[in-house]
Amino acid sequence: MDEQPRLMHSHGVGMAGHPGLAQHMQDGTAGSDGEGRKQDIGDILQQIMTITDQSLDEAQARKHALNCHRMKPALFNVLCEIKEKTVLSIRGAQEEEPPDPQLMRLDNMLLAEGVAGPEKGGGSAAAAAAAAATGGIGADNSAEHSDYRAKLSQIRQIYHTELEKYEQACNEFTTHVMNLLREQSRTRPISPKEIERMVSIIHRKFSSIQMQLKQSTCEAVMILRSRFLDARRKRRNFNKQATEILNEYFYSHLSNPYPSEEAKEELAKKCGITVSQVRKIERNLKATGSFHLLSRQVSNWFGNKRIRYKKNIGKFQEEANMYAARTAVNATSVSAHGSQANSPSTPNSAGSAGSFNMSNSGDLFMSVQSLNGDSYQGGQVGANIQSQVDTLRHVISQTGGYSDSLAASQMYSPQGINTNGGWQDAPTPSSVTSPTEGPGSVHSDTSN
DNA sequence: GTCAATGATTCGCC
DNA sequence: GGCGAATCATTGAC
Q: Where in this chain does the record put each PBC domain (predicted)?
């Protein structure tokens, strides 16, 4: 096989038309027998076209014959020209792609997280930034912090190792392909531009793999952050007292268990929201001027309670009975004492605004009274009658022969959940007091 | 370790 | 913006 360089640039391509062929023809083979040459070219093309239909041995033999053919250099040049034109037309549309916005986002995020870019404390800085962003992690969580930093540093290390591997693999593969193409250029027309294009394709492929690596790293960082910083991870069960307060309210307002914002705040205060939670909330209140956070946990609790109660009334029957009985006792007490409810001398009377004192854990009944609004509403005992009646009805029904839980659960339906699955008589939640109050009703005492 | 309970979040709807 | 519903994630009992 001849050893002349077959890269297209070395063939002096550039004449109009088919200069390679023309050159060959001018080299003494043109002019005399034009018909014979046409026949030759026709034969060569025919052989090329049918080469894939032949067996390997046959093809090899034909290939050898083609390589030795006197017209081969000219044909080779023609093919080079055609190919170059085609490749250039393809390339035209692919020049200078803009940077991928997704890749930019990933890069920015990795930089922000301290995974990409110079070390400069890397994970530590990111952990500190994350902590600052959440604002909820103090010195008491320094152990978790160091753990977080360690894990982030681990991610960073893995990311850089993998990145190096990818870059190395990319370079190796590019070199390999270039060598291969140079080798193949001996037997088929391959232009340097084509090689260049192939290299850029390889780089694009590897950069897409790199993007996957960056994506995975981002995901890992996100998971790590959620693992250490997600509020859900800080979940603590409410203490028994708080649960009882909330349950008292829920079951005593079963016909409309939608506490107003004020009621939620009041409940939140009265429940055992931890000191740190309260402090955090207070900080937020100062910073934002919003009072919604204060009752967020209460809202969550009621949201969960409503849906879980509705889903499985039977399961909550016993609990409902217990709280209903307490409230019933409360109601009975209210009825029995009648006017005394307004007496300033009565601990839970109007005179004791904000006297809802759950520190006296033995006085749940009192708590219910307060929560039902008696002590807030300045003697509007009647305003709370509806919820008391609700629970009384329930207790009376319970003692009236409902033994199976299904029947018992159905018993609740008319007073609480309607047939559509919604809460019956559920107007816009207004206050901590009975739903029978007007929509605009608010506590007279929210200073507590 | 399993599993039920439960607080918190997310999403779609109104 | 609040709610219901679904889901996640943790706790605590066993």
A: 36-230
C8: residue with closest CA to C1': A232
∠ CA A387-A393-A395, rounded to 5°? 105
CATH 1.10.10.60 residue spans of chain A? 240-333
The alpha helices in A15-71, defined as continuous H runs, are 19-24, 34-50, 56-68
Tens of pLDDT, residue by residue over A368-402, are 333 333 333 333 333 344 454 454 445 444 433 33
Joined together, the tokens standing for residue A84 give 């170059």
For chain A residues 264-303, those near strand B by a CB cutoff of 7 A are 296-297, 300-301, 303
For chain A, report the end-to-end CA distance as a whole number of angstroms.
Answer: 100
Q: Are A295 and A264 in contact (CB under 8 A)?
A: yes
Nucleotide lying nearest to A422, CA to C1' measure: C4
Superfamily of domain A240-333, CATH level 4 = Homeodomain-like (1.10.10.60)
Q: How far is the CA of A233 from the C1' of C11 (A)?
A: 10
User: How far is residue A51's CA from residue A445's CA, in Å, rounded to a whole number?
Assistant: 97
What does the pLDDT look like over A143-198, one tens digit per residue?
556 666 777 777 888 888 888 888 888 889 998 888 888 888 777 777 777 788 88
Residue A303 CA distance to nucleotide C5 C1' (Å): 10
